[in-house]
Write a structure and sequence with these properties.
By secondary structure, this protein is α/β, with parallel strands linked by helices. 39% of the residues lie in helices and 20% in strands. The chain is built from nine helices and nine strands. It has a nine-stranded mixed β-sheet with strand order 3-2-1-4-5-6-7-8-9, sandwiched between helices. The two termini are 31 Å apart.
Length: 274
């Protein structure tokens, strides 16, 4: 058997298993790469208080030691997820630069305190100015894209294109603005921009609220395909199909949340879907 390609995820842990490094590892396994994890935070949920989230940052020195372990082995790709401080964002940048990591997918995870307002604007600015310029692909959702681009909330396909162009100017090679079902079109829409042309990616619009971990999964699938040596546009198209089937077969975990079914595409391709 040929050697397996390896991917680093620098992200948080979701104790419920649907997002964060848990989603990343499930996706890496399904896409045929070997995943390694450097945890930045541990996120818990309180079933006695409406599934309220608790966020427990990992000490910086511990994050550094995790990266030291992983980078001694070597990776063909990297993705980032929840980065809870400017210091860890800086660490991600140094890691990419000092180890000449190619195939970097930045999922610019942000938390909002209102529909259109950032909870930690200083972290979002650091993502934009420090890490986005190091990205092969940056994968914001509509809220994150508006924050990175510095524009009003995104409502239309043209808004998505405007945001993608402004983010690409920050230094990312490719920008994938994820619209999904949020702009009122009959299909699930994403916009990819490479600095010269826009590509609109469409897929079935699946009516479900069980989408926990979708952003993590999508970016992890892109990172896996890039690490295997595929080109950016081909990697994103493959990831789009992967995430679409994972959402199509998503399921309720409890009364609060429903995660994706990460093995859905494999089951569909082998005719084993239920």
């Amino acid at each position: 058997m040929k050697p397996i390609n390896k991917v680093l995820t620098l992200a948080g842990s979701d104790s419920s298993g649907g997002a964060g490094i848990q989603a990343d590892l499930k996706t890496f396994q399904e896409r045929g790469v070997y995943g390694m994890t450097a945890l930045t935070t541990v996120v818990t949920m309180d079933p006695e208080h409406g599934w309220a989230h608790g966020v427990f940052p990992i000490e910086m020195s511990t994050v550094e030691e995790q990266l030291k372990t992983i980078l001694s082995i070597g990776v063909q790709g990297m993705k980032t997820g929840m980065l809870g401080s400017v210091e860890i964002i800086e660490l991600a940048r140094r890691t990419i630069e000092n180890h000449s990591i190619a195939n970097v997918v930045v999922d610019p995870v942000m938390v909002c305190k209102g529909a259109d307002e950032a909870l930690h604007p200083e972290l979002n600015e650091a993502l934009r100015d420090i890490l986005v310029p190091k990205a092969t692909v940056v994968t914001p959702n509509l809220f994150e894209a508006a924050q990175l681009a510095g524009i009003a909330p995104i409502r239309t396909l043209d808004d998505m294109k405007e945001a993608a162009a402004k983010i690409q100017e920050k230094g990312a090679r490719y920008v994938l603005v994820k619209g999904g079902s949020k702009i009122g079109l009959p299909t699930s829409i994403d916009v990819l921009y490479d600095g010269q042309e826009f590509e609109v990616l469409e897929a079935d619009l699946i009516q479900t609220t069980y989408t926990h971990g979708a952003g993590c999964t999508y970016s992890a699938a892109i990172a896996a395909e890039l690490a295997k040596g595929h080109d950016v546009k081909g990697s994103i198209r493959t990831a789009k199909r992967f995430i679409t089937e994972a959402i199509r077969f998503s399921f309720p975990l409890n009364e609060y949340v429903g995660p994706l079914r990460h093995n859905a595409l494999r089951l569909v391709e082998h005719g084993d879907e239920e």
